[in-house]
Specification:
Layout: H1 3-26, E1 33-44, E2 52-54, E3 56-65, E4 71-84, E5 100-117, E6 120-141, E7 146-169, E8 172-187, E9 190-204, H2 206-215
Antiparallel strand pairs: 1-3, 1-9, 2-4, 3-4, 4-5, 5-6, 6-7, 7-8, 8-9
Protein name: Outer membrane protein beta-barrel domain-containing protein
Signal peptide: 1-21
Keywords: Signal
């Protein structure tokens, strides 16, 4: 075989190998759906920390890859728990409450970008949301000689942003994530800014999604 022919064959092999390598890299996220489950804490920042003290919390969401594997949708729900120390008197109740329990249920609709470094992925996300904030109150029943804990709830629009990293092991990823959550409605006349820290798993459920779609006749 002549030298020009060898060069052509070498070039074709190089192009083919490069294409295969790129295709293999794409499959880690291409058209994938992951269930994201995290455990950790949501720390209140600034003056709100006088009211809210972090307790163990968790999150649940979906990592939905788009056609371009560098972009993804990230709908999620935060279940945040706090020890609650009332700072402002509520005229509807005779007594203020200390060491109560407050819960935040936050639905986030975020979009994100990621950078893949072999099995390690770095990502960032941001988006709006809405949530329900539950605040406790203490009502004293003189007749029954009891203190009754009642809950007040309100809705609030939110804004969420964060960064994270995950590492692929088999069919799932180990992940760590730090996020910032802002409530547009105050708690105890204080701005609410929360720092969430989670660790957990991302599990590939693409096959399950495809099987369900096939049974329903979507595919």
């Amino acid at each position: 075989m002549s030298t020009p022919s060898l060069r052509i064959v070498f070039f074709l092999l190089l192009v083919t190998g490069t294409a295969r390598a790129q295709l293999g890299a794409d499959t880690i996220h291409h058209q994938k759906i992951f269930v994201v489950s995290g455990l950790g804490w949501g720390f209140a920042l600034g003056e709100t920390s006088e009211v809210l003290q972090a307790k163990f919390s968790n999150s649940l969401g979906l990592d939905i890859s788009l056609a371009n594997r560098h972009y993804f949708l990230y709908p999620s729900v935060d279940f945040l728990s706090y020890r609650y120390n009332q700072q402002l008197h509520d005229p509807d109740y005779q007594h203020d409450l200390e060491k109560g329990r407050s819960n935040f249920y936050m639905l986030n609709l975020a979009g994100g970008v990621r950078r893949q470094l072999e099995k390690l992925n770095l990502y960032a996300y941001a988006g709006p949301g809405a949530g329900v904030v539950v605040e406790p109150r203490a009502r004293v029943s003189e007749e029954r000689q009891r203190v009754i804990i009642e809950n007040t709830t309100h809705l609030t629009p939110t804004l969420r942003a964060g960064v994270g990293a995950d590492y692929k092991i088999g069919g799932f990823f180990l992940m760590i994530e730090a996020g910032w959550l802002h409530n547009f409605r105050k708690v105890q006349d204080r701005q609410v800014n929360l720092l969430s820290l989670y660790g957990g798993l991302k599990t590939d459920v693409t096959t399950l999604k495809n099987n369900v779609a096939r049974v329903m006749g979507i595919q």
